[in-house]
Amino acid sequence: MKKVLIPTKLDKVVAKILGDAGFEVVQVPDKPVLDLAKENADAQVVIVRSEKVTPEVMDQLPDLKLVVRAGAGYDNIDTKYARRRNVDVMNTPGANSNAVAEEVVALALAAYRKLVPADESTRAGKWEKSKFMGHEITGKTLGILGLGNIGRLLAKRVSGFDMTILAFDPVLSADMAKSLGVKLCSVEEIFSQADIISLHIPENDATRGMVNAKLLSLMKKGAMLINCARAGIVDEEAIRAVKAEKELIYCNDVYKKDAEGPKSVADIADIMLPHLGASTKEANFLAAKRAADQTVAYFADGVTTCVVNKGVPDGMDEKYQTLASLLAGVSAAYLGADAQIARVETSFYGKLHQFGKWMLAPITAGICKTFDPYLGAKDALDFLKSRGIEMIDRAVDDEKHYGESVTIDLITNKDTVSVRGTITENRMMLSRINNYDKLYLELSGNNLFVEYKDATGIIGKIASILGANSINIIDIRAPQDLERSSSLAVIKTNVAVPADLIDRIREEVKAEKAFSFSC
After folding, report:
1. Could you count the other beta carbons within 10 Å of the beta carbon of residue 124?
2. Contacting residues for 168 by C-beta, under 8 A, at least 6 apart
3. pLDDT band at 517; cut points 50, 70, 90
4. Residue 483 DSSP one-character state
5. DSSP states of 40-82
6. Mean pLDDT to the nearest integer, 418-434
7. Which residue(s) pair with 183 in the sheet?
8. Contact of 324 with 408, CB cutoff 8 Å
């Protein structure tokens, strides 16, 4: 009989389903995970909500096979250490999505109608109707950053309010956006046009501090910002600096740490909740049921669909997964953040062709930073399909003698980019972008790409601008496309080139493309 530890207040359906399937269930909500693990060292499964599953916890469980996060996000679980221990980690994506979407609507209504202070005033015996004059959300413009499960449900839930919905998602096709009733926009357009902005993006290196002073300066006076995603994506000091001037309404449900004590946003949040996004009976029931069902299917039938930290098959060097992700990232950067990708085409040469499906998740993660590279091929295909993007793995001709290399093409309605790369002397190399062949750029560090019509002195101008801003050049590659009479300068620098400096370089040399990519 397999033992399951549940150190959290999950709906009782989890114990019923597991018990009926022959599992021994130990559910103690108020006991620390580590203590529960020490007392039940023979357990094979741990199911948690927000409780942390650290290496120390896993080391107490020598027979551990599976950790299940009853919810979507799993940054409370050390997935890499779990992989080293050969422990699979699962999540239950979508179980909490409707609860969070409804919470956003509730926050918007409560903030616009000033329900919280009005309640406090009325309970105190006052009658201050004029003080609490509010706004209606009907007819307003809603901006949604991230159209995953939650973002899509939010768009659907507010449809009855006749709102104009603007959305940003780096991997959503125009056709899919149309079917969802949203208009794809840049982040800057959303912050300048929306009356209400709701964040539904993960926190990672690309999004940390994303909502900064520059974006906040674009907001309308009296606009509302709602964060039910992750605390780190918002620069609190930037909000503090503009709140009074912009009359900004800020609603918050996420914190750096879920615990009692003073909260850093207390002085700037109009409404702040104790991370209630997933706290509905319905969401708790659904997350519990899915966690139990997935656990049973995992052991009974070997179903690993929701495993988020899958390894690699025998004979495959996992560095090629990293290479594929970086190549996809360069391709996406070349097209630009506003590109609406319609199709992804891949070619895996040499021995890599048999491992093509293991590259799909890293490629998807390279295109979209919100996708987890540890997910499987089916997850990647489902993710791309949900955004209206077709994935095609092409047959290859190994007589071209490309060795073990990867080619990735991203196609939009307006533009196409094709890149190829390989691993040489244990280094990940970008060998081609479109017709810029023999590039041989090591994918490491900070890289500035500038594409321009052939002209003399361009590289000198770029180098001069970088030098004037104390940015050192480490390496330069400058292949030509003779058919188009254009050149591509790829300059490796000691630090990342700031966005405003890239804009200046683009203007100074009349570049067709200018972007940075850091590895």
Report:
1. 8
2. 143, 144, 145, 146, 184, 185, 186, 187, 190
3. very high
4. T
5. TTT--EEEESS--B-HHHHHT-TT--EEEESSS--TTB-HHHH
6. 95
7. 166
8. yes
Contact 338, 437 (CB under 8 A): no
Neighbour-count burial of 509, counting CB atoms closer than 10 A to its CB (0-12 exposed, 13-18 middle, 19+ buried): buried
Q: Is residue 340 classed as helix, strand or coil in its secondary structure?
A: coil
Q: Which two tokens stand for residue 457?
A: 């002195």
Type of residue at 258: D
Write out pLDDT tens, residues 314-369: 788 889 999 999 999 999 999 998 889 999 999 999 999 999 999 999 999 999 98
Using 50, 70 and 90 to split pLDDT, how confident is the model at 468?
very high
Cα separation of 81 and 91, whole Å? 16
Number of C-beta neighbours around residue 342 at 10 A: 18
The per-residue pLDDT of the chain, averaged, comes to: 94
Torsion 460-461-467-471 (CA) sign: negative
* Stretch 292-320: mean pLDDT: 88
Side-chain half-sphere exposure of 370, counting CA atoms within 13 A: 23
Q: What is the pLDDT of residues 16-38, one digit of tens each?
A: 999 999 999 999 998 999 999 99
H or E element, residue 141: strand 141-145
Measured CA to CA, the distance from residue 391 to residue 384 in angstroms comes to 8
Say whether 281 sits in a helix, a strand or coil: helix
DSSP states along 157-218: HGGGGT-EEEEE-TT--HHHHHHHT-EE--HHHHHHH-SEEEE----STTTTT-B-HHHHTT
CB count within 10 Å of CB 450 equals: 25
Count of C-beta atoms within a 10 Å radius of residue 500: 9
**CA torsion 199→204→205→210, rounded to 10°?**
10
Phi-psi map region of 440: left, alpha, beta (phi>0 left; psi -120 to 50 alpha): left
